[in-house]
């Protein structure tokens, strides 16, 4: 999960420790009991809209579980990828639950929770297809 900088001093570390012990990650403080959570919404199976237009997926399930554990009301919203960090920084929402590589550039703008999944990229091609791909490129990973 990703939080705006700076996170309020309500005890983010204490909240994180409690939630991580429960198998979840932490959130930034918003209005008491209400959190707006952004996800990208077009990245199945992590987050996507079903035939009825409802957000579904693994990241959405994590967000719901987090809210249930906290006994908090949450609104999960889809946000275009290009606006997801700017929206968080502008406090349009309280946190992001999305598959996002943790980079130094992003760390300068937002805080990350501990990783809750690891995504490994692979190249796949039909046998015999000529390809010039370096071994390093076939083992890149992003963490969230």
Description of the molecule:
The chain is α/β, with parallel strands linked by helices and 144 residues long. It has one domain (2-117): Periplasmic binding protein-like II (D-Maltodextrin-Binding Protein, domain 2), CATH 3.40.190. Helix content is 23%, strand content 23%. The strands form 4 sheets. The protein has a 3-stranded parallel sheet with strand order 6-2-7. It has a 3-stranded antiparallel sheet with strand order 3-4-5. A hairpin with a 3-residue loop joins strand 3 and strand 4 (47-49). The longest helix has 13 residues, at 58-70. The model is unreliable at 17-30 (pLDDT under 50).
Distance between the termini: 7 Å
Oligomer: single chain
Overall morphology: globular
Number of strands: 10
Assign the CATH class.
Answer: Alpha Beta
State the share of residues found in helices, binned by percent: 10-25%
Q: DSSP strand (E) fraction?
A: 15-25%
What's the mean pLDDT score? 80
Which sequence of strands runs across the widest sheet?
6-2-7
The helix tally amounts to 4
Features:
D-Maltodextrin-Binding Protein, domain 2; 10 strands; 3-stranded antiparallel beta sheet; 23% strand; 144 residues; alpha/beta; globular; 3-stranded parallel beta sheet
Task: Indicate the topology.
Blueprint lengths: L1 E3 L7 H10 L12 E6 L2 E2 L3 E3 L5 E2 L1 H13 L2 E6 L5 H6 L5 E2 L7 H4 L2 E3 L5 E3 L20 E3 L1
Parallel strand pairs: 2-6, 2-7
Antiparallel strand pairs: 1-8, 3-4, 4-5, 9-10
Question: How would you briefly describe this protein structure?
Answer:
The protein is an alpha/beta fold and 144 residues long. It has helices at 12-21, 58-70, 84-89, 104-107, and strands at 2-4, 34-39, 42-43, 47-49, 55-56, 73-78, 95-96, 110-112, 118-120, 141-143. The protein has one domain: Periplasmic binding protein-like II (D-Maltodextrin-Binding Protein, domain 2, 3-Layer(aba) Sandwich), CATH 3.40.190.
